[in-house]
Write a structure and sequence with these properties.
- The complex is a heterodimer.
- Chain A is mostly helical.
- Chain A has twelve helices and no strands.
- Chain A has a single domain, classed as MetI-like fold (Orthogonal Bundle), CATH 1.10.3720.10.
- In chain A, 66% of the residues lie in helices and 0% in strands.
- In chain A, helix 3 runs antiparallel to helix 4, helix 5 packs across helix 7 and helix 10 runs parallel beside helix 11.
- Chain A is elongated and about 80 Å long.
- In chain B, strand 3 and strand 4 form a beta hairpin.
- Classes of the chains: A mainly alpha, B mainly alpha.
- At the A-B interface, helix 5, helix 6, helix 10 and helix 12 of A face helix 1, helix 6, helix 7, helix 8 and helix 10 of B.
Chain lengths: 310, 331
């Protein structure tokens, strides 16, 4: 038996991605910055072992004994401390930024993964099955959109028991609040696909819904999903940093860019480099993902409207 | 009549969402093993004192019963404890902060002017500047202004508010010394000082939030300018000003209304980060104080308050949408 209508070609998806990134200069820069930061995050323990530093050890010798400020210009930048040191403790800022990248990427990427898995599963099933299931998913999504998630997460961070590892809590909570947006995009893409001949043909041949969704729909949903995932990661990274900035994110001494920026408030006037170093790292990461995401969207999915959230 | 029914269903569904948010928040906070009575029980905290505190606050009842009393309190008010030490919380009672010895309604009410000043001022600024820049970018596509606006808006979308805020404080507050570094002065006390303290937060928030408006206005404008009715308007010999201002811009307003309503509602509900950076004693700071003191009733009510604003913003957006676009009323 030969299929009546062949599905659209999908072998070219990987190369389409590469081409989309290569043809867009901003997206190329974004991809390169992400690769560099990702490498820094993955190799942080190795790199800091080479520099002989770690983000936890206090180093009073790098500080001015009277004021607690770093010794030397620009926040104490030197051969041993590549990006200077933290005032008051003398901890190595390069090690803090490198290990902070691990925290940011871990939470940003895994929380996005949670949103994408939930969003694709719920969005595709809602769009394909329709009926009461579609209404339930849509309604739950509406409730979550009405949820003041930042305020709720701050409050939750205060009351959550210490026995739950903070990283796990952040990944689950941030990821959970992100699924409705993915689901909306996936649902509308599914509605469009469900009318196409190759899906109809599969249905006509008696393919059960589960099989149709996984074999026919999902392979054709990659474009919008990749775009929304790439644009979600910087928001999740920003959210983790914001929560750590507010004191309800990852617990010290685990390094986090957001907490370092929060620590820098009191030193803005006397040691601005302490603000600039983690701040630039965070800004580079979010901007790189935004540039890459915009480029991918233009190439793969020009109709998806960008929604800002802050 | 159709309009009234449309408005009615929107308001009802908004109330439904609020009820669910309240229920979920309540359940999550009260199921976690945090004991608010333990915190307000004096030292040494004997088991009798603890039981007394629990009974006084109503924390000794099952959580679903507490939720019922919470909802009842909103409508009819509540009294905690009895006799001479009883605390009266008149309707609408959204809870009582035992740590701050005040009803949460009065606590939020005290802080609200700060947050409103901050959010509304910034919102007006970003709406005006964002839309104006977006229109200019669309009309002069590919010009220096267009490239500059899109470059700046990429930065605005990516930069976190605390980073831009702190850099602004460093540059304008400490180095150039043209604006205050932090704090808030009530409008009634001195309008000049009020505006002077708010100007930097307004600019920072407008820069970050306005970026999306530039992008959205530009994109929508480019789409609209290709429509037939614009060509017709131009062919009729209407001045370009009328074509852009009346015919084109009117069709760009719909998505802008949605975005603006949700942004403003979200910001009013808790500009937590901005208030922390600029040392403003608003609703967001109240939330952070509640976090520090583990003040459960206050945490619950600030979350609910933020939800109310988001839901109200959503309902208003839907209603405005119905007014602007008659087609929306039909669905």
């Amino acid at each position: 038996m030969t299929p009546a209508a062949p599905p659209p070609p999908r072998t070219s998806f990987g190369s389409a991605l590469v081409r989309a990134v290569r043809d867009d200069r901003a997206a190329t820069i974004g991809a390169l910055v992400i690769a560099a930061l990702l490498l820094l995050a993955l190799l942080a323990p190795v790199i800091t072992r080479i520099t002989g530093q770690d983000p936890y050890t206090y180093d009073a010798s790098a500080l001015d004994p009277g004021s607690g400020l770093p010794q030397g210009a620009l926040g104490g930048i030197s051969g041993t401390h590549w990006l200077g040191v933290e005032p008051l403790t003398g901890r190595d800022l390069f090690a803090i930024v490198a290990h902070g990248a691990r925290t940011s990427f871990l939470i940003g990427v895994l929380a996005t993964a949670v949103s994408v898995v939930l969003g694709v599963a719920l969005g595709a099933s809602a769009g394909y099955l329709g009926g009461w299931w579609d209404r339930v998913v849509g309604w739950v999504g509406d409730v979550i959109f009405g949820f003041p998630y930042l305020v709720f997460m701050v409050a939750l961070g205060a009351v959550a028991p210490p026995s739950i590892p903070r990283q796990v809590l952040l990944i689950v909570v941030i990821g959970f609040f992100g699924w409705p947006r993915v689901a909306r995009v996936v649902r509308s893409a599914t509605l469009g696909l469900a009318r196409r001949d190759f899906v109809r043909a599969a249905q006509a041949m008696g393919s059960p819904p589960w099989r149709t969704i996984t074999r026919r729909l999902l392979p054709n949903l990659w474009g919008p999903v990749v775009v929304i995932a790439t644009l979600s990661i910087p928001e999740r990274i920003g959210l983790e940093a914001a929560l750590s900035f507010l004191g309800v994110g990852v617990r010290p001494p685990t390094p986090s860019w957001g907490r370092s920026i929060s620590d820098a408030i009191g030193w803005v006037q006397t040691d601005p480099m302490f603000l600039v170093v983690p701040g630039v790292a965070l800004f580079l990461a979010t901007m790189a993902f935004n540039l890459l995401g915009d480029g991918l969207r233009d190439a793969l999915d020009p109709r998806t409207a960008r929604q800002g959230a802050r | 009549m159709a309009t009234l029914r449309y408005a009615g269903t929107r308001v009802l569904s908004g109330l439904g969402v609020l009820l669910v948010v309240a229920f979920v928040t309540f359940a999550v906070f009260y199921l976690l093993p945090t004991d608010p009575a333990q915190l307000s029980c004096g030292r040494p905290c004997t088991p009798e004192n603890l039981a007394l505190a629990r009974g006084f606050m109503g924390f000794d009842e099952p959580w679903w019963q507490q939720f019922g009393e919470f909802l009842g309190g909103i409508l009819t008010g509540r009294t905690f404890g009895s006799g001479a030490t009883a605390i009266d919380c008149s309707a609408p009672c959204f809870g009582y902060s035992f740590q701050q010895s005040a009803t949460v309604v009065s606590l939020i009410g005290d802080r609200l002017p700060v947050t409103v000043s901050l959010a509304v001022g910034a919102a007006v600024l970003w709406l005006v500047v964002g839309v104006a820049l977006g229109v200019v970018s669309a009309l002069r596509r590919g010009s220096v202004v267009d490239h500059l606006a899109s470059g700046v808006s990429v930065i605005g979308v990516s930069a976190p508010v605390y980073l831009v805020g702190l850099l602004g404080i460093l540059l304008l507050g400490f180095t150039l010394d043209v604006v205050p570094v932090s704090g808030y002065v009530p409008l009634a006390q001195s309008p000049v000082d009020w505006a002077w303290h708010l100007v930097l937060p307004w600019i920072v928030l407008a820069f970050l939030n306005g970026a999306v408006y530039v992008r959205l206005t530009r994109g929508q404008m480019l789409e609209v300018l290709n429509e037939d009715y614009i060509r017709t308007a131009r062919a009729k010999g209407l001045p370009e000003r009328t074509v852009i201002g009346k015919h084109a811009l009117r069709n760009v307003t719909l998505p802008l209304v949605t975005l603006f309503g949700l942004d403003l509602g979200g910001l009013l509900g808790g500009a937590v980060i901005t208030e922390k950076v600029f040392g403003m004693p608003g609703v967001g700071s109240l939330l952070l104080e509640a976090v520090g003191q583990l003040d459960l009733p206050l945490l619950l009510s600030t979350t609910l308050f933020a939800a109310v604003l988001i839901v109200v913003a959503n309902v208003l957006v839907d209603l405005v949408y119905g007014l602007l676009d008659p087609r929306a009323r039909l669905t």
